[in-house]
Amino acid sequence: MTKTKNLIEKINNGDNRAFRELYGNDPVVLKRNASRYIELLSRYAGEFGDSNDASYFSSPGRTEIGGNHTDHNYGRVLAGAVNLDIAGIAGKNGKNVIRIWSEDYPKFEVDLTSLKPDESERYTSAALVRGICSRLKDLGYAIGGFDACIDGGVPKGSGLSSSASFEVLIGAIISHFFNDGKLDPIENAIIGQYSENNYFGKPCGLMDQTACAMGGLITIDFKDPSKPVVKKVNFDFVATGFSLVITDTGGSHADLNDEYASLPTDMKAVAAELGAKVLREVSLQQVLEIAPKIREKVGDRAILRAIHFQGDNQRVVDQVEALERNDFKSFLGMVVDSGYSSYMYNQNIYPVSNIREQNVSLALALSELVLKGEGAWRVHGGGFAGTIQAFVPQNLLGKYVSTLEHVYGKGSCHNLFIRHQGAGLVEL
Fold first, then answer.
1. What is the pLDDT along the chain (428 residues), one digit of tens a residue?
2. N or C: where does the chain have the smaller number of CB atoms within 10 Å of the terminal CB?
3. What is the pTM of this model?
């Protein structure tokens, strides 16, 4: 009980340095997160009993700012950690089992005596945990049992990457309890990706995990995916007077694995025709030269997606340069260009199997009606369902939110900021 009382005192109704760094300065938001943390503490005691070593952890969602579907072909991205997070409280249990209770999923356990992939766990959180532990052990890290209660403040299907946030949260917990916090954020990200690819069953890239693990605004070059080059970008979005708004347009990603898998498959098919593994190894000119010869074999969509990759990959470099020279107007123009490229060439705005439901397409159209000439808008993340991203000037913020929420419902728009802290311990 002493531990519980001390934690509640440190939370101090949200009035503490750690919360301000994670969630901003809005008193309403700080109090809401304080209640969230205290509820997690109560739930932990109810599920697992009091623990003297229980600690809080937080893992942010991420927003992809530049480079749509470039990472899986070893390209470049621009991304940032955001103030919506997965928060959790965890403590060692002295057993060889991990037990996790979540607000959003059924309670589950992972027995660490067997770390082989379990086909019955595919597409579940248990598969992610098992895969992370397996890879950590293979790499020489210690693993062990712990209990955790988590609250998923990163909405599922939001395009803010709740799965990657969860993965690196698990990595951060194991690093803290069993490895003296020695797990590097980038290695944590690579381990999360490994688990998602090989245990969960989704062929994702590495951008999401890296952004969640690192924190801040970063550009990542995946030319060598085993050693991605991560660079912090110093730019203050708040000072621009624009809001970063993510709108959840609804729709589930659950039945879209084939759509997502088709993106790297199409791109790599074009690369293979040029004797390469991925599109990063070839140029746009090479793609255009070979296009007439390979249309029938790989399909026109694959060539269009290759054109998108080459354009968006270079655009990331140009966006970073624009931000570093404080040319926000040019940056906004490139955000719009990226969005058009995703729609016309990458074609990840709606699934071809269901043309009646075009949540993302409609949200982009509404955004253009409000923001054209004033702001920027684009698909966000994987696409096909979920979210869009917009940079909205303050004088249009009310109109923009009301226009989008008129269609997608109150609370569908999230006004975010880039948070500096990556996944890790919350030091109250």
1. 567 778 888 998 889 999 999 998 889 999 999 999 999 999 999 999 877 789 999 999 988 999 999 989 999 999 989 989 999 999 999 999 999 999 877 899 999 999 999 999 999 999 999 999 999 999 999 999 999 999 987 655 555 668 899 999 999 999 999 999 999 999 999 999 999 999 999 877 788 898 999 998 999 999 998 888 999 898 988 889 899 999 999 876 667 878 888 999 999 999 999 999 999 999 999 999 999 999 999 999 999 999 999 999 999 999 999 999 999 999 999 999 999 999 999 999 999 888 888 999 999 999 999 999 999 999 988 889 889 999 999 999 999 999 999 999 999 999 888 888 999 999 98
2. N
3. 0.81
- Delineate the domains of the chain, giving CATH numbers in brackets: 2-233+419-425 (3.30.230.10), 237-416 (3.30.70.890)
